[in-house]
């Protein structure tokens, strides 16, 4: 295969990821009533999906009435990989990172058997992006056993390379990639180059109503 053919194949693959399997851009999260969203955010920790979860059924009913689809559900062979974003000097999150985590929370709830990798180093005030992200998700009901902080990456290339290393150790073969819309193209390219099959993507510009809009880095 020529270099031109390889480039074309990668472009087609990335276009397919954007248009065919982007988790329907989390449209269902935009119509969930406040009480139901609160229940999602405070759901108790779980390692595996229960046989019959009434909240999942309720969410599905709301989405069905609205004529939209929920994010796809994935099992333990698929990791949810959340890319970090630079912390403020005091070690707290910028709004954009909070929005990525809101999108991750929805996917983590819909796929309770999937491990969650939070990737990002760049420490500020003694804490890394991944540590802050793991704490945020834990407080909102994602079991600590599911969370795998990758605290060394300082770039998107390293996010991909170090996440691939962690996925191999976990025996995970695929990933749902969560980052910002304007970062997704570059992230996808890096993750595909690292040999990670990305089966779906999620962006925070379609996070639920209880997330704050994100803006440019300050």
Brief characterization of the structure:
The protein has helices spanning 3-19, 34-41, 54-66, 95-110, 129-139, 156-170, 184-193; strands at residues 78-83, 116-119, 147-150, 174-178, 198-202.
Radius of gyration: 17 Å
Computed structural class = alpha/beta
Gap between N and C termini: 44 Å
DSSP helix count?
7
Sheet bearing the most strands, described? Answer: 5 strands, parallel
- Major sheet: order of its strands? 3-2-1-4-5
- The chain-level mean pLDDT equals 76
List keywords for this structure.
five-stranded parallel sheet, alpha/beta, 218 residues, disordered C terminus
Can you describe what's shown?
- The termini are far apart.
- The longest helix is centred in the N-terminal third of the chain and has 17 residues, at about 5-20.
- By secondary structure, the chain is of the alpha/beta class.
- Residues about 10-55 and about 205-218 have low confidence and may be disordered.
- It has helices at about 5-20, 35-40, 55-65, 95-110, 130-140, 155-170, 185-195; strands at about 80-85, 115-120, 145-150, 175-180, 200.
- A five-stranded parallel β-sheet has the order 3-2-1-4-5, with helices on both faces.
- It has seven helices and five strands, in the order H-H-H-E-H-E-H-E-H-E-H-E.
């Amino acid at each position: 295969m020529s270099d031109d053919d390889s480039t074309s194949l990668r472009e087609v693959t990335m276009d397919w990821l954007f248009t065919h399997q982007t988790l329907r851009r989390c449209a269902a999260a935009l119509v969930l009533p406040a009480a139901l969203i609160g229940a999602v955010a405070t759901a108790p920790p779980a390692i595996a999906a229960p046989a019959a979860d009434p909240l999942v059924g309720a969410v599905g009913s709301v989405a069905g009435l609205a004529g939209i689809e929920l994010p796809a559900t994935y099992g333990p062979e698929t990791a949810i990989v959340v890319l970090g974003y630079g912390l403020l000097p005091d070690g707290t999150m910028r709004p954009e990172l909070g929005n990525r985590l809101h999108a991750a929370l929805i996917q983590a709830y819909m796929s309770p058997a999937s491990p969650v990798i939070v990737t990002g180093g760049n420490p500020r005030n003694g804490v890394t992006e991944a540590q802050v992200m793991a704490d945020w998700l834990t407080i909102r009901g994602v079991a600590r056993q599911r969370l795998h902080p990758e605290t060394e990456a300082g770039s998107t290339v390293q996010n991909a390379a170090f996440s691939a290393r962690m996925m191999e150790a976990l025996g995970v073969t695929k990933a749902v990639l969560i980052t910002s819309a304007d970062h997704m193209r570059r992230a996808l390219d890096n993750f595909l180059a690292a040999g990670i099959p990305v089966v779906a993507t999620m962006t925070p510009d379609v996070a639920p109503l209880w997330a704050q809009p994100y803006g440019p880095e300050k």
